[in-house]
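dumping these here so i dont lose them again. two proteins, back to back, each one seq then structure tokens. dont judge the mess
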Amino acid sequence: MIWKVNEQVIDLSCRAQVMGILNVTPDSFSDGGCFDQVEKAMAHACEMIAQGVLIIDIGGESTRPGAAEVSESEEMQRTIPVIERLRQEWDGLISIDTKKAGVAAAAICAGANIVNDVSGLTVDPQMISVCAKSDCGLVVMHMQGTPETMQANPSYQNVVDEIRAFFEERLTTLTAAGIIKERICFDPGIGFGKTLEHNLMLLKSLDQLSPAGRPLLLGVSRKSFFSKLCDAHQPTDRDAATAAATALARQQGVMLHRVHDVKGNLAALRVCEGVRG
């Protein structure tokens, strides 16, 4: 299994990889306000790089449940200076976490390699065109509703079948627009318009979700549903639970993991792979 990102071909056949979260927001659920200045963001990026991160995912708009949307200009002011600075100092992979085409285009110009869109490239009608003009990698996520409304009353007839059908439609649409399938990976959007039961069903069925052998990216890091399963009510108390979910997902063949705790989740992946041989 490979993922093409610009001129790079990422081999995901044996070793799973980590995408490190860098939120440059004042209000993200776990680390809002911690890295909303360039120097603080760079210090955290350097820490993740030292720990072995493959991708750094930079986001300027919170997508926690209930979060209000910010303007395109505000999102750019938060993210682009960090992307530019990181690109000057690191030749690794940079992802922009956005659903706005203008932000994605500016981020690509500033040096981002990947567009990570929580709407699955459905919210902004220009997003597909922006990505088709680039050779960036794409993360296509499933979300029911919007961050403001998604946890109000999520409902599915069959959550696994519906998300797989969404991925299949997105793959057809994106490839028809000129985006080769090797550039695409999919994210089931754990916690994005899903109940605890929906999340658990998806986590048990990860090997059934992705079409055409494309890789999955899993983002469960510090999610609130862990507090219903164990005594972990603060986001930073959920790193052990996250690492457990990461290892279980790796058993099902998930090779990309979006996390806050790079070191702990890489350790979980390598132990899992050691046992698997």
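---- next one ----
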Amino acid sequence: MNWYVLQTMTGEEEKLVTMIRKMLPSDLYDECFVLYCEQLWRRHEGAFVHVARAFPGYVFITAERPDKLYLELKRVPAMSRLIAGDNLYFLAIEPEEAAFLNQIMNENHVIGLSYLSTDGHGHVRQTAGPLRSCLKQVVRYNYRRRSAVIRLSLAGSEKQIPLGIILPEDIRRQLRYGKVEAPIVVPERYQVQAGASETAPEIQQGDQVTVMSGDLAGMCGTVSKTKKHTVRLNIHFLGQRLDIEVEAGDVKKLG
């Protein structure tokens, strides 16, 4: 399936998606959506997850026959004014660009928050989540604003977008949703799982464990791999599965 991007007025993206779904035959395209990105905003009273447009003014659409799709788009009022004399408002996305976006977004077309830990001097020690797939594309980190800015190519131009990150000190806080631009149903807040039973003599792959100390204290997960001194955990947090390595002595098996 080929990916294309439609350019429209910022703030009118979902309106265009609704019009396309209403006016175009469903067999002309597969998906039509806006891509969103989660950001973590910290305030004195707590931390809030905002869901904002990753590419303001852009709508993504996937189709096999762009020629027929292009002709039908001219029937959509929001697009007809734009593409009447300029096809730059309907652009193809390279397969590798589409594959990258597909890798970092979830089924709701949202790029979730990524977990990131440092060595205490600003150097990245470990990552999990969408950011793990694009470390080489990071332009800069802004730990205070909880973001990692990445550079990517999209439809013939270079873009920079901030991916939201959470640090170890954010893990044990209750994170509430703030402003949500995406038309998705969200819980009132994220909440850390907790609780443990008796100590297991040996941690094995597939065990359900809780982290008792360290950066991720209070988190629960499934052991995906064991090493001599560490274990890798699949932790369900922030609506996604994070693959994180922790010290073996920091985990306890759940009964």
